[in-house]
Specification:
Elements (H helix, E strand, L loop, with lengths): L5 H4 L23 H10 L5 E5 L4 E4 L11 E7 L9 E7 L2 E2 L2 H24 L1
Antiparallel strand pairs: 1-2, 2-3, 3-4, 4-5
Helix pairs in contact: 2-3
């Protein structure tokens, strides 16, 4: 009977080992840290239900903005490490359904502006 070495004992038939799970998945998206932080800051009035920095998705529950009467919820996708408008996709919804494209664009602009401010502040240090 042949005794398997440590490397052989930990591998499955397909040549991968349990340690490969800790190296990081190949389908992970690298998100821009400034966009991520800016999104959480701009939408801080919404309760975060799920936030996954590995896929770039932030999902919130319903919340009312300060001084507003309408409740919103948001799903945000940050799909790129670049600080760029193409890397950010915001979907807003009210209890009555989706909001206008202009409202979504205004929230995206607020997030992008805050992200740029954060990047400028980080460059100072």
């Amino acid at each position: 009977m042949r005794v398997k070495s440590g490397r052989e004992a930990n591998t499955r038939g397909d040549g991968t080992s349990i340690l490969d799970a800790f190296k990081g998945a190949k389908d992970q998206v690298k998100v821009n840290r400034f966009l991520w932080t800016a999104t959480l800051q701009v939408l801080d009035f919404l309760p975060v239900e799920a936030a996954d920095p590995f896929t770039g998705v932030i999902s919130t529950g319903f919340g009312t903005p300060p001084g507003g009467g309408q409740a919103y919820r948001a799903t945000v996708l940050i799909s790129d490490p670049a600080l760029d408008a193409r890397a950010l996709n915001v979907a807003l919804q009210t209890r009555g359904g989706p909001v206008s494209a202009a409202t979504e664009r205004a929230v995206e602009d607020a997030i992008l502006n805050r992200a740029r401010q954060l990047r400028i502040d980080a460059a100072r240090f």
